[in-house]
Amino acid sequence: MATFVQTESLKDNTITDRIIFYCLCGLFFCIALGATSPAVITGIAAISIWLFSGKFFKQKDMWLKQKWTVPVIFFMLLPWLGILWTNDIKSGIDFAEKSYYWILSFVIASVIIKSDSKRLFFDSFLAGLFLFCIVSILKFANIMALPGWMPTIFSKSITGSLFLVFGILMLSFYFKATESSRKKLLFIFLIALFFFALSIGHGRSGYLAFILLSPIVAYNLIGRRFYLILPVIALSLLFLLSSPAVKSRIDLAVHDIKVYQAGNPNTSIGLRLNKWQGAVRIFLESPLIGAGTGGYAKAMIKYDHPNLISDFRMPSEPHNSFLFMAASYGILGIISIVWLFVAYFKKGWFSRNSLTGFAVLSFGLVLFIGSLTASQILSLATAKMFALLMGIKTENGSL
Q1: Domain count, the chain
Q2: What is the pTM of this model?
Q3: How would DSSP label each residue in 224-277?
């Protein structure tokens, strides 16, 4: 995986800025690779340096006066406030502790980074995703034995599939922005590789995200030749839907819906339908403040389908970010997540022609779609990426 940034552009930055910058690069890489422990370590390292160096105070104007600061702080504090009325304090604390991810927004906003250096963040992410694809394909082809802890598209199907779609979107922007034929070929190869990894995985959230966002990819690759966009979209969807793995997962989803309607909720889709309905009922029972942080699981007991077996009663969230916020915090939760996404999308939309702006906007779209079938705001990888891209500075221009 090639790196396209001249890191010498960092030489004028302070040592602290450079250390935090490279910690964040490592975090982008680890997030894409699916390496949980290294992602936690690099993230905590960046936060710790930011705090103990005093940079959080010296550069307070760089993160305290952003348009997204208030909705982020409100989103961070709401889980701790929700412990006051939860029915499960232990679970509530476990959920609330995850809100530290959002400190990364303040960290990346405080680092003095030249515009061209920001690309190293995304190159690091794509490098990690490239390695993730290679490992996944090796496992798929049974070329070599892999340790069980090694992340693949099969073990991290939902998050991995969403990141692959985000990677494809980013590569399409790279393709659009370069005039080099060799780089264009490299980006096409990587898009094909990521697409293949998506097609052999089990992440239906990723399939949906790719189907809905494929027009953006096609536009970036083809430009204003609109007569070619529809054929390219149709061809890519044909390849995706003809994959045996994709076809089997779609057929399974149809089967799950049918058996749920027949009274059997003990399937992947059946679980989600049961949890979604329960989340709505929990919200309607307490529309102002919800069940509290971590209170969803206990509140859900009386709403579970009578035929649900014990193995399917374990999920502590409703597999939907928006329903999670509504069930946990009522109207406060709905206001919080809507406010957060509005601030995020406004930031991405108004700088969509720049690399960072496009990254913000495209990841937001992927995350929004993924949040409909899984509580992605709770996932370490997607939540940290959400926080990082909320805080990253954007600018006008292509790169």
Answers
A1: 1
A2: 0.92
A3: T-HHHHHHHHHHHHHHHHHSHHHHHHHHHHHHHHHHHHTT---SHHHHHHHHHH
